[in-house]
């Protein structure tokens, strides 16, 4: 009796532990074939962990810090914890900003850590093509990962790879009910699909995949993948942690201030009888015109 | 035939335009009664806009900047746009970090803007209690808003109010499949529910509400509301925009450097014959021991 819109999300059982070298499309396809044969327009959300496992992205655990460093192209923020350890938020080789570059030590075999897939958009495409071939339907595939976020507590799942499905439902150019343009609305639908799927997938429950049925309108064979959801550092108002940026500014300001102060100190001394250098207040007013040498960095 | 987990999301039609003073629980209840009578364990996600409208949170549009300022308790980051206008990210009176303090000018009557609900957790509670009474079932209610985020392009819907439903599914203390503790996993399920609902709700389509069925495990009468999802500035590694923090650090460093430089300049002059003050290089080495006056801020 519903006259509006609706969709459903199913997380099938029975995919089991995934091992390096497994044919993930076959494992997922077998579980779906038995429980929930895919239909045209379905969107499959696959936890990146099983994609990484199938791709054999294991590294021995002694190398965890080295693995994080190797995956890191830019350190965004670090916070040392009082009890030891640190949160390291970095931009990874993939362009994703995430804690520990997405290197994962939970639910992996003892002594190993797991890197993110080599190219999650390509992984999504391979899965989509294999499953479309097997079932003869048009599908979307999203590879999801769990990400923390500034300003809000807890994590949500987001799309780190996508194929055949829009990453963003670009409403720019649309108008609202009063006919005024919706200038800034770009729902990140792939992230919302990943978040929805996380509500039934179970990290520790052997349910690494969810199938979303009813949102075929989001399918788009020409969609560019999830990489478009990554905001480059140049466009990002939060490309560096607050403490790090403050510290960087302080070092710069110190060098600038030192140079100005030094020149002003010399000048003040030259205005004063020898042997009677002023030691009290620094001069008021703007001393920025001073053409002074750069001093040693302090702070 | 599905042996795993599943849920469904429905966005009923027919709620129509909401006006100040409307009984929102009655409007939503009527639409649901006709199309989709709520069942025990259902979770209702309601767009904050209709909650604000029913609560009469309109302000005349000439006051938009004043309205944003009045809602702001802390400016997080500002970026001027080349074509005019600016993005102003602030912590609002509610503790939510959002562009323009959540003050909304789209889909509102000409000449007005809309503030967020006075107390979204209380709004969610009132809606829940009214709908539970009417239908005789136990429900969860989430009030959602559309939020941008650092690092990623586009927006997702998040929970700004909640009642009767967990905001976070706290898995700390759980163990993974290998028996190792899942120390940091706290899925922000209320945000994921809001994101899922956004996939069928239609801002411009007259579908401001979605009903989620199948996730009754997330209901919790004692849950503390969505406020727990707000990370306080003190705990936030991104409490201030990168440019703002750098600028703040630069001012501080400049004052510190100026004071050190000024003292060092005086000292250098005193080591030099009168009338022959050195004007060339600043001294090498650490001048930090100088006990100098604070200089005027520069830079």
**Rg of chain A:** 27 Å
Distance between the termini of chain A: 69 Å
Tell me the CATH architecture of the largest domain in chain A.
2-Layer Sandwich
Number of domains of chain A: 3
Share of helix among residues of chain A?
25-40%
Summed over residues and divided by their number, the pLDDT of chain A gives a mean of 88
Backbone shape of chain A: globular
Largest sheet of chain A: 5 strands, mixed
Tell me the number of strands of chain A: 10
Largest interface, per-chain counts?
A-B, 130 and 129 residues
Fourth CATH level, the homologous superfamily of the largest domain in chain A = CofE-like
Write a short abstract of this structure.
2 copies of one chain form a homodimer. By secondary structure, the first copy, chain A, is of the alpha+beta class.
Write a structural description:
Two copies of one chain form a homodimer. Chain A is α+β, with helices and mostly antiparallel strands. The first copy, chain A, folds into three domains: 8-57 and 116-239, 60s Ribosomal Protein L30, Chain: A, CATH 3.30.1330; 61-103, no CATH class; 241-299, no CATH class. The first copy, chain A, has helices at residues 24-35, 48-54, 64-71, 120-135, 189-198, 242-270, and strands at residues 5-11, 43-47, 58-60, 72-80, 86-92, 97-99, 112-114, 140-149, 152-163, 209-213. Chain A has a five-stranded mixed beta sheet. In chain A, strand 5 and strand 6 (97-99) form a beta hairpin. The longest helix of chain A is centred in the C-terminal third of the chain and has 29 residues, at 242-270. The first copy, chain A, is globular, with a radius of gyration of 27 Å. Mean pLDDT of chain A is 88; it is low at 284-295. Strand 1 of chain A pairs antiparallel with strand 1 of chain B.
């Amino acid at each position: 009796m519903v006259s509006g819109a609706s969709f459903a999300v199913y997380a099938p059982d029975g995919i089991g532990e995934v091992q390096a070298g497994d044919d993930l499309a076959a494992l997922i396809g077998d579980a779906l074939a038995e429980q929930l044969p895919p239909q045209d327009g379905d969107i499959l959300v696959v936890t990146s962990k099983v994609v990484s496992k199938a791709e054999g992205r294991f590294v021995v655990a002694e190398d965890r810090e080295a693995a994080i460093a190797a995956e890191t192209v830019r350190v965004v923020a670090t916070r040392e914890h009082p009890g030891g350890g640190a949160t390291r938020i970095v931009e990874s080789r993939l362009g994703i900003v995430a804690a520990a570059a997405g290197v994962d030590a939970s639910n992996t075999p003892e002594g190993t850590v797991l890197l993110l897939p080599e190219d999650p958009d390509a992984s999504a495409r391979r899965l989509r093509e294999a499953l479309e071939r097997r079932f003869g339907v048009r599908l979307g595939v999203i590879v999801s990962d769990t990400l923390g976020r500034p300003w809000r507590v807890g994590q949500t799942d987001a799309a780190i790879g996508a194929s055949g499905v829009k990453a963003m439902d670009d409403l720019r150019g649309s108008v609202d009910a009063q006919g005024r343009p919706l200038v800034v609305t770009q729902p990140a639908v792939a992230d919302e699909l990943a978040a929805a799927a996380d509500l039934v997938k179970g990290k520790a429950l052997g349910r690494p995949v969810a199938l979303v049925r009813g949102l075929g309108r989001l399918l788009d064979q020409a969609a560019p993948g999830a990489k478009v959801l990554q905001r480059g550092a140049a466009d990002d108002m939060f490309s560096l942690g607050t403490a790090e940026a403050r510290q960087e500014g302080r070092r710069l300001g110190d060098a600038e201030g030192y140079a100005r102060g030094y020149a002003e100190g010399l000048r003040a001394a030259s205005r004063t009888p020898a042997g009677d250098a002023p030691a009290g207040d620094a001069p008021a007013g703007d001393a920025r015109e001073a053409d002074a040498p750069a001093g040693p960095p302090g702070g």
